[in-house]
Amino acid sequence: MSSNIIEMKGIVKEFSHVKALKGVDFSVKKGEVHALLGENGAGKSTLIKILTGVYPKDGGEIFFDGEPVEINSREDATRLGISVVFQEFSLIPTLSVTQNIMLGKEIHKLGVLNKKAMHKEIDDLIKRFDFPLKPDDIIETLSVAQKQMVEILKALSTDARLIVMDEPTASLSAKESEMLYKIIEQLRERGVAIIYISHRLEEVFALSDRITVLRDGQLEGVVEHEDIVPDKVVKMMIGKELSDATASRPLAVSDAETVLEVKDLCSLGRFEHVSFDVKAGEVLVFTGLVGAGRTEVLRAIFGADKFDSGEILFHGKKLPKGTGKVIAEGFGLVPEDRRTQGFIPLLSVERNAACTNYDTLSSGGFVKVDKEKELGEKAVEIVDLRPRNSQVIVGNLSGGNQQKAVLAKWLTRDLKVVLIDEPTVGIDIGAKDEIYNFVEELAAKGVAVILVSSDVAEVLRVAHRIIVMKEGYIIHEFNNGVVTQEDVLLACSGIIPGEKEA
User: Fold this and answer.
1) Residues 6 or more apart from 82 whose CB is under 8 A from it?
2) Which helix (H) or strand (E) holds 120?
3) With a threshold of 0.85, does the pTM exceed it?
4) Residues 407-426: pLDDT tens digits?
């Protein structure tokens, strides 16, 4: 009997005459954690979608437990014992945790649902893995981290022999990530194989038994755990050495003009007494643990959410309420959840870019098609989108290129203030430098940048000043001298530098 639970040989996939996979070989042993690495667009997601029946393969063979198989649907994959936690959520917002997990496998008798039995099954599952959820919680009321947990529970509920985890910790706090690592160890001990996809390389190196690296749709190599050398793995992924993307810089308060001032902003249950200002050409970074209230502050400034009290001043005058008026003043928002809030998946890059620019693309109620096309081409050029085609559907792009498409629609405008929430979640290490360059270029042009990030290395990479939030309050600001990762992490936990001896 084969030691491999899955073996894919010579897998080929083509989209619109572009080869996404060029004869890729990939295998996973029983009971191992096998990491799949590569830049966005390297072919990772395409390979996984073929394995899970989302896409048909155009060539090659697949063997499951040593036997040749055809996987033409999600049902085929499920029957074999393959389960998946995708990077983008596949949850129904208005249903409960139980209803989402049991969808398609409901317990019933004579056509009548046994709600009590389903509730108990999910309650037992939640307790087994100690997740902070309740079976009756409605998905749309949960945080991003909790939604990720529901996705993981969906996979765990199928007694799968192979589980694919695509960026499972991207939205989780450090404590929640540790919880996931323990679950992975439990699964490995039970003989369950895991394909692990993550751009957090430190966790990949710690968890993986083996690593497969893809680049430009081809197999670059397979690395055994004992042979993992981080710099060499990175070079395999991108084909070149990386600059130091985690270097800090001295922090300082800018003497430039104050562009935005937030005074005693309050929103009951979300954040309280938030006050700060941001200068022209400054990158002000908000950090803190998941649930600290950072995203909520950004959405309030942008007019997406109401606030209860306080005021927001733009160049000394009250900022008008409502997203349309805020956008007209020169504001842009790159949201945390790009797929549900940042772009329209079924529209092209051109149409997505146009969505925030119809005020300049239309006249007398009619859209100027030539200007729309010109804007789409400009958007592709600005962010170096791959493929370089403004007509490609955004939902079909890799995670990194989707994020570029979200940025592009704002970079084509005359921005004064840009609000960016977790810009590199699910982005490969090569693309991170590009995102940071966009942020720095905006600041160099005098745009005020307010950025939310949970990645401490990222915070130190881009920040001119750092504001730390905890449980809805600003608890500390770093605005001078050199700040270390330890300083920021301690502050996020509520231990303020300089108070540690107290």
Assistant:
1) 6, 51, 52, 64, 71, 160, 161, 162, 163, 164
2) helix 115-129
3) no
4) 888 988 989 999 999 988 77
